[in-house]
Amino acid sequence: MAVLALALLLALPSGASARVLAPSWIDGTGPSWSNGVVLCVFAPSTPVVAVSAAGLADSGLTVGVASLREETAATTPVAVTPATQVTWTVTNRSSSSWYDLSYNATLPVAPPASAVTSLGKVDVRLDFLLPVRYVEGVTENLSAVTMLLSVSGWPWQSANDHLVIALGLLPAFAGTEHFAPVGTGSTVLASVSNQSGRTLEYFAAGTQGVTQGPSGAGTPVAVQPDWAVGASAASVNLSVGSSAGAFTSLNYSATVGVVLPATIAGLPLSDFILVGGTAALVVVVVGIGVQRVRRRPSDLVFVEEERR
C-alpha cells in the first residue's frame, strides 16, 4: 500500500501557481479559501485538498483518492476505476454559510488487468465544505473540512461483493511534520509537528455510510478502515460493508481538520471557534493523486502566509 501513495504523487499533474487570498472564494487556477481558522488549497482540476491552520506556514495535510474498486469476499479486486486520465467538472457551490467546492465525474469501470475492457460507468461527486463563520445555535466545526462523497450506478459484478475506497495522504511539509502511527482499530490519522510533537492536523475516517437500493430506502452500512502509515506518507482502504453489492448509491463522510492551540493571541480558543459534532468527509472520487500541495514553493500553488 505504500506504493499507492507514491503512485498518487506521480499521477497528479502540475499546475500554474496562484495566490491564496482572503476568506472568500477565489476563481481561477488553484482555488483556495479560508474562514480565518482553516485554510484550504485545492488542485485546479482534480479533487485534492491541502488543509492547514490559517496563518501557520509550512504546515498542512494533503488528501486525495487513489481509486474505487469492487472486491470479492476474499478481497480479490474484480473491477476498478482509472487512476489517471479523468476529467472532473469543478463547481463553486458556496453560500453565505458554507464554502463548497464540488468535483463531479463519470468514471469508467474496468477489470483490474484490462483497462480497455469496459464493465460500465459510475457517477461520483465529492464536495469539500468549510463553515464560513460561527453562527449562534449552529454546531458546525469551524476547524474542520467536511468532504461529502456520493457514488451512484456502480456496475456490480456480484451482489456478494463490496466496495473499497482507496485514499492517499501526505504531510504537506515532510520537513516540519510527520504522521504518527495509527493504533489498532483507530479511525484517526494525526500529522504531528517534528519540533514540538503537537498534533497539527488530522484525518478522521467515518465508520458508517448510507446506501440506497432500488426501493430508494436508505440503509446504514459499516465502513472499515485498513491503514498503512509511514512518517512521510500514508494510505487507507475504506471497505464498505462485507457484502454490499445490492446498493445503487452510496453516501459516505469523513473529516480533515486542524488542531488549534488552547489560546490564540492570548485569548481562549472558545472565543474563536465552536466545536460541533462529527463533520463529514466523503472522499470518494477516483483517479486523483496526492501531492504536496502546500509545499513552498509548490507545483500547484504558492501560499503567502505570515509565519508564527
CA radius of gyration: 19 Å
Distance between the termini: 35 Å
Number of helices: 1
> What are the secondary-structure elements, in order, as H or E?
HEEEEEEEEEEEEEEEEEE
**How much strand?**
35-45%
Query: From the helix content, strand content and strand pairing, which structural class follows?
Result: mainly beta
CATH topology of one domain: Beta-galactosidase, Chain A, domain 5
Q: Looking at the structure, what is the overall shape?
A: globular
Mean pLDDT over all positions: 77
CATH architecture of one domain: Distorted Sandwich
Number of strands: 18
Compact overview of the structure:
By secondary structure, the protein is mainly beta. It has one helix and 18 strands.
